[in-house]
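pls design
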C-alpha cells in the first residue's frame, strides 16, 4: 500500500482545497493511505476531509510569515508518519514540503493550481515562486499541473518543464447534475418565478474574477433585451451586500432590484440547478472549477477565453474575449434566443463532456498512476 502525506497551505474554500477533498476518497478506494497537513488554518474543507476518515493536522502558521517552528512540526509529522510520498498543494506548501522531503529523503510531488500569478499577489508569494523555480530543477520528482496553460506559464517562470504532467481537474458528476425538483425548490426559496431568466456566477470577490466587467455586461444585456425578466445571482466569498465596492458597482449599473448576493454557501449544487445561464467573467484562470461544475449540472455556459476554459468548454457553450462587457452581453443574449431544442442540445453536450473527459474518478486514477511511476523511479 502506498502512503501519501498531503501538504496544503490552508483548507478554506478554494479550487485546490476542493480538489484535494474530492480526490481523497478516490485515492482511498485505490488503496492509498493518506493524511493531511495544513500549514495555516483549517476551514470548511477540513471537515469534509475528516469525514472521509483522514487525519488533518494544522500548523497554524501566520500568512506571509516564514516559520521555522512550522518546518520542524511538519518534519516531525512526516518523520512519525513515514509516508512513501509527500504531495504538496499550492506554492507555500510546495516550499515547506520540499524542505522536509529533502531533509528526510522522501520523494515530493508538487501541485500547480494557478495558471499565472495575479497582478496583486503578495510579494512573499512572488519570492516563494522564484525559489520554487530554482528548486524545481532538483527537488520534486514530478509536478502535477491542473492545466496546460499553467504548465506553460510556469515553464516561462523558470520551472523545470520535463517533469510537469497535466492532469485536469475532475468533477463529481453525481453531486453536480440536473435535478428538476432541486431547481423548483431553490428557485421558490430565492423568489425566482418561472418567467424569470436567472443569470449566475459562482466565484469569490477577487480582481482575477473581474466582477466589474460582469456587472457592466449584465447592465448592457438589460439594454439589449428590455422585455425579458432577468435576475442576477452572485455566490461566493465576499459577494454580499456588506462589500461596499461591489455594492457601489451594482448601484452604478442599476441592478439593485434584480440582484441576489448570497455570499459563501454550502448548497452550490442546488444553486446551480436554479440558474439558467452560467457566466464566467475571469481575466485569469487555470482550469476553472466553477465552469466545470456548471457544465456537469447541465447549464448553458458563457465564459471568457482564459486558461484552459476553451479546452474545458469545447463546443458546449460560447467563448468571449476577457474584459469585454459588450461581447459578454451579446453572448448571453444569443443563449437566451436559442430555440428550446438548441438549448437542450447544449445542456446535454455540456454534461456529457464532463462525464466522458473530466470525472473525479479519471482525475484520481491519473494521480494514482503518477504516484506509482514516482515510486518505481525511486
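designed seq:
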Amino acid at each position: 500500500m502506498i502512503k501519501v502525506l498531503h501538504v496544503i497551505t490552508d483548507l478554506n474554500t478554494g479550487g485546490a482545497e476542493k480538489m484535494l477533498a474530492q480526490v481523497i476518497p478516490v485515492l482511498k478506494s485505490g488503496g492509498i493511505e493518506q493524511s493531511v497537513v495544513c500549514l495555516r488554518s483549517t476551514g470548511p474543507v477540513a471537515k469534509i476531509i475528516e469525514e472521509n476518515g483522514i487525519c488533518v493536522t494544522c500548523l497554524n502558521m501566520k500568512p506571509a510569515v516564514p516559520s521555522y517552528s512550522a518546518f520542524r512540526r511538519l518534519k516531525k509529522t512526516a518523520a512519525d508518519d513515514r509516508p512513501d510520498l509527500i504531495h504538496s498543494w499550492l506554492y507555500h506548501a510546495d516550499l515547506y514540503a520540499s524542505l522536509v522531503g529533502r531533509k528526510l529523503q522522501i520523494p515530493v510531488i508538487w501541485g500547480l493550481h494557478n495558471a499565472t500569478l495575479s497582478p496583486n499577489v503578495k510579494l512573499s508569494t512572488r519570492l516563494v515562486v522564484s525559489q520554487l523555480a530554482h528548486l524545481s530543477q532538483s527537488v520534486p520528482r514530478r509536478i502535477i499541473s491542473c492545466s496546460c496553460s499553467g504548465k506553460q506559464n510556469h515553464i516561462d517562470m523558470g520551472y523545470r518543464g520535463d517533469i510537469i504532467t497535466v492532469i485536469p481537474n475532475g468533477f463529481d458528476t453525481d453531486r453536480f447534475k440536473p435535478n428538476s425538483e432541486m431547481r423548483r425548490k431553490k428557485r421558490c426559496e430565492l423568489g425566482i418565478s418561472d418567467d424569470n431568466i436567472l443569470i449566475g456566477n459562482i466565484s469569490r470577490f477577487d480582481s482575477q474574477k473581474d466582477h466589474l466587467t460582469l456587472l457592466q455586461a449584465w447592465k448592457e444585456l438589460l439594454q439589449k433585451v428590455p422585455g425579458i425578466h432577468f435576475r442576477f445571482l452572485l455566490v461566493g466569498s465576499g459577494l454580499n451586500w456588506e462589500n461596499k465596492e461591489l455594492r457601489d458597482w451594482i448601484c452604478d449599473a442599476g441592478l439593485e432590484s434584480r440582484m441576489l448576493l448570497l455570499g459563501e454557501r454550502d448548497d452550490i449544487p442546488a444553486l446551480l440547478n436554479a440558474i439558467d445561464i452560467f457566466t464566467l467573467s475571469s481575466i485569469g484562470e487555470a482550469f476553472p472549477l466553477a465552469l466545470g461544475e456548471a457544465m456537469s449540472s447541465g447549464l448553458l455556459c458563457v465564459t471568457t477565453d482564459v486558461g484552459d476554459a476553451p479546452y474545458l468548454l469545447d463546443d458546449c457553450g460560447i467563448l468571449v474575449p476577457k474584459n469585454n462587457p459588450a461581447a459578454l452581453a451579446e453572448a448571453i443574449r444569443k443563449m437566451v434566443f436559442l430555440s428550446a431544442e438548441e438549448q437542450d442540445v447544449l445542456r446535454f453536450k455540456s454534461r456529457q463532456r464532463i462525464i466522458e473527459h473530466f470525472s473525479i474518478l479519471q482525475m484520481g486514477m491519473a494521480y494514482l498512476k503518477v504516484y506509482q511511476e514516482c515510486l518505481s523511479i525511486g
